[in-house]
Specification:
Elements: E1 2-6, H1 11-23, E2 26-31, H2 39-48, E3 61-63, E4 70-74, H3 80-90, E5 94-97, H4 106-109, H5 111-131, E6 136-142, H6 166-185, E7 189-194, E8 197-198, H7 207-216, E9 221-223, E10 230-231, E11 234-235, H8 236-247, E12 271-276, E13 282-283, H9 284-295, E14 301-303, H10 319-325, H11 333-347
Parallel strand pairs: 1-2, 1-5, 2-4, 5-6, 6-7, 7-12, 8-11, 9-14
Antiparallel strand pairs: 3-4, 10-13
Helix pairs in contact: 1-8, 3-5, 5-6, 7-9, 9-11
């Protein structure tokens, strides 16, 4: 297949594009390499995929030195004209959209970038998919769409009309927009609600990265809600395996779907929503303890109240993923944390303190 993957300088996109390239798919990666976090990490991910920083120019497609079937282009999804040109010239079979303005807390102070990237960019992708006979659009949603929902584990069959951050609202909007295109134009779309993804090459604004860095530098870590939090931490390899299976299995539409009792996760149209989570939430204090064990050093803790836009607990119901695709994430938290810290120490060339 020829697959467009957006967000390939990002955490999940980098891993996914490499996996698809290794299995023999023709991959075109897109990223605008914005400065939401350290661009050097983004360029290093691209370098690891065979793209030299000096060769990267806006709207210029370049080949990977590592994978002969992988090309990259720096492009904004908001750039409708050049995005349309890319679709017409490259003739993709499928699209996986992992490009987005991420972060819950950042959306409290920078709302407009979420509309530009997550709403305008997404409608441009939908239009390109519609007009270029794309076989399947898979796209990143988020566990944050569950918002004020207190029924756990979070199920895709639950109503999610009460988001508590603009980031979450933008992701819910993507799901609604995708359904409209599935219904009107028979475009198969699948939304993926990711649950707290972590692992090597992870984002510097995420807890594991922040905690590891602070502990190694002998600085205090911020522990929100006084440590009384749970997250369904999901290892990157498990996420990518789930995404690949989804890409390979476009939805066909639910023949039993009824507008009298509508199931939010499916439709008569070729539309589907999946949770991808570990289905095993971990307490924040237990998570920190695993990091301390691996590093061999106790963390100094700065206990703080819950932040605006944040939720106390996440827990994914992945029964649909198991039933439809025969898959369930299963990497233990200890193994995942160990792999991340090994990568971190190697990437930053820090001696492991014992």
């Amino acid at each position: 297949m020829k697959i467009l993957v957006t967000g390939t300088a990002g955490f999940i996109g980098y891993h996914l594009a490499n996996v698809l390239a290794k299995r023999g798919d023709e991959v075109v990666g897109v990223d605008n390499i914005n400065d939401y976090y350290d661009v050097n990490l983004k360029f290093d991910r691209l370098k690891d995929s065979g793209f030299e920083k000096e060769k990267i120019e806006y709207n210029k497609l370049i080949p990977s030195k590592k994978y002969p079937n992988y090309k990259f282009i720096k492009l904004n999804l908001e750039d409708r004209e050049n995005l349309e040109k890319l679709f017409k010239e490259e003739k993709f079979d499928k699209v996986c959209n992992l490009a987005a303005q991420a972060g819950v807390r950042y959306s409290l102070t920078n709302p407009y970038v979420y509309v530009d990237s997550n709403i305008v960019g997404f409608i441009n992708l939908l239009e390109c998919c519609r007009h270029n006979s794309i076989e399947h659009l898979a796209y990143a949603s988020s566990s944050s769409v569950y918002g004020l929902n207190e029924s756990q584990p979070f199920s895709t069959h639950d109503n999610v009309d009460h988001p508590i951050s603009l980031y979450a609202a933008s992701k819910k909007s993507n799901e609604l927009m995708a359904h409209t295109y599935s219904h009107l134009f028979n475009l198969p779309t699948t939304g993926l609600r990711f649950f707290t993804v972590y692992g090597p090459w992870g984002r510097p604004d995420m807890a594991l990265f922040l905690f590891t860095k602070a502990i190694l530098e002998d600085r205090a870590i911020d522990v929100y809600n006084y440590g009384d939090m749970q997250r369904d931490f999901t290892y990157i390899d498990d996420i990518v395996e789930g995404v690949v299976r989804v890409i390979d299995n476009p939805p066909k539409g639910n023949l039993n779907w009824s507008g009298k009792n509508p199931d939010p996760s499916s439709s008569k149209a070729p539309y589907k929503i999946y949770n991808i989570g570990n289905n095993a939430p971990v307490g924040l204090m237990d998570f920190i303890e695993e990091i301390e064990k691996k590093i061999g050093k106790k963390a100094k803790k700065n206990f703080l109240p819950l932040q605006p836009g944040d939720v106390k607990s996440t827990y994914a119901d992945v029964s649909d993923l198991i039933e439809d695709l025969g898959y369930k994430p299963q990497t233990p938290i200890r193994e995942g944390i160990s792999n991340f810290i090994d990568w971190y120490l190697d990437y930053y060339k820090i001696k492991e303190s014992k």
